[in-house]
Design a protein that fits this description.
Blueprint lengths: L7 E9 L8 E9 L4 E5 L6 H8 L7 E6 L2 E2 L4 H7 E4 L11 H11 L4 H14 L15 H12 L6 E5 L7 H15 L4 E6 L2 H7 L2 E6 L2 E6 L1 H7 L3 E6 L6 H9 L7 E3 L4 E6 L2 H14 L6 E5 L3 H9 L4 H5 L4
Parallel strand pairs: 3-8, 3-9, 6-7, 7-8
Antiparallel strand pairs: 1-2, 1-4, 4-5, 9-10, 11-13, 11-14, 12-13
Helix pairs in contact: 3-4, 5-6
Bound molecules: adenosine-5'-diphosphate and magnesium ion.
Magnesium ion binds next to helix 1.
Length: about 325
């Protein structure tokens, strides 16, 4: 595939913020997104997700590298790029005082639709995003999930071929999050290419065909959710401690076979660690536990969860984001 055949392509994009801290921004950012697919750009706070979205949507210039969107060069064909994209920013763009419908009509007129066309499009979008009943309420009365859906609707006034969505569910409660996911799914069915940024592994797992993991302005891993789990290699060992067991003894035993940092979940009394050689790890652990006269509740081997992949790759993850995932 040529670079311009991808709906979104970035090649070694560098962006240093004037006056910004060293390394903040993008440091050789690469991305290839096929038309009609959903790419999840996953990374902790400060990784550079918003910077990438702003650059690809022509809102921010960059220092070096190349980028194209919908087949157009982001730097030299910005106007064409803007004609083909929609952008849902991290913070709502809709007007609080206006109703949902008035907002959509206003956006439609900004896009040069006639008043009648704009009203018709507003009705379609209110229907698609399950906002018909609340269409005539001022946005100030909307819940967080409703606002995000209205934001999505506003970005789709003139069906873009590429849609950028920056952290669509940050700050929403579980119900709002589910509603926004449903809205995003219905939108993907229309064939729009979506680049979605998120700090939530579960969100990327649910919505994205492929995931790119961003750390300090650079992609450090890319693949389908399954490929990423496999790429980490090896299995994970889980030991659930019986009540009253001294966790520090078990921890030091597990450390003998662990191929990476241990994780301790105090709520479930579980110690987890990646292991390279599964048989050897099990034998070593079983022998050492038996010698220490420790009888665990459970020992098992399994494939890593996506959050473990994420922690493994990024070193440190945002705890709040990681805890979102229930294996
Ligand atoms: N206008 C700016 N000036 C200086 N530094 C910035 C600016 N915008 C973002 N940064 C820095 O660049 C890094 C990436 O920011 P951002 O792209 O917003 O990350 P994310 O969206 O992944 O949380 C952060 O360290 C942030 O502090
Ligand atoms: Mg951001």
């Amino acid at each position: 595939m040529k670079r311009t055949d991808f709906a979104i392509a970035a090649n070694r994009v560098h962006k240093h913020y004037v006056g910004g801290t060293d390394g903040a921004g993008l440091n050789g950012f690469d991305l290839e997104v096929r038309p009609g697919s959903v790419c999840g750009l996953l990374g902790p706070n400060g990784a550079g997700k918003t910077t990438a979205i702003k650059i690809l949507s022509t809102l921010l210039d960059f220092d070096d590298g190349q980028a194209s969107v919908a087949g157009f060069d982001v730097r030299t064909q910005g106007r064409q790029v803007r004609q083909h994209i929609g952008l849902v920013g991290q913070y709502a763009a809709v007007d609080e005082i206006l109703t949902g419908r008035q907002n959509l009509v206003m956006f439609g007129q900004l896009h040069h639709l006639s008043h009648r066309q704009a009203r018709q499009r507003a009705d379609e979008l209110l229907d698609q995003f399950l906002l018909l009943d609340s269409g005539d309420l001022p946005v100030s009365k909307y819940s967080g999930g409703m606002r995000r859906r209205l934001d999505l609707a506003a970005s789709l006034i003139v069906s873009p071929s590429v849609l950028f969505v920056d952290e669509p569910t940050t700050g929403l409660d579980p119900v709002g999050r589910q509603q926004v996911w449903a809205a995003l799914r219905s939108l993907v069915d229309t064939g729009t290419t979506v680049l979605l940024t998120t700090q939530y592994l579960e969100e990327a797992d649910q919505l994205a065909d492929r995931i790119s993991i961003l750390k300090a302005g650079r992609i450090i891993a890319e693949g389908t959710p399954n490929e990423l789990k496999t790429a980490l290699g090896g299995d994970w060992l889980d030991i659930v401690l019986s009540l009253g067991t001294d966790a520090s003894i078990v921890t030091s035993i597990v450390e003998q076979v662990a191929a990476g940092p241990l994780r301790m979940d105090a709520r479930t009394n579980r110690i987890s660690a990646p292991v390279k050689d599964r048989t050897k790890a099990l034998v070593t652990i079983a022998t050492a536990l038996s010698e220490a006269q420790i009888e665990p509740e459970d020992i098992s081997l399994r494939r890593p969860t996506l959050d473990e992949v994420f922690i493994h790759l990024t070193g440190s993850a945002e705890p709040a984001a990681v805890l979102e995932v229930t294996p």
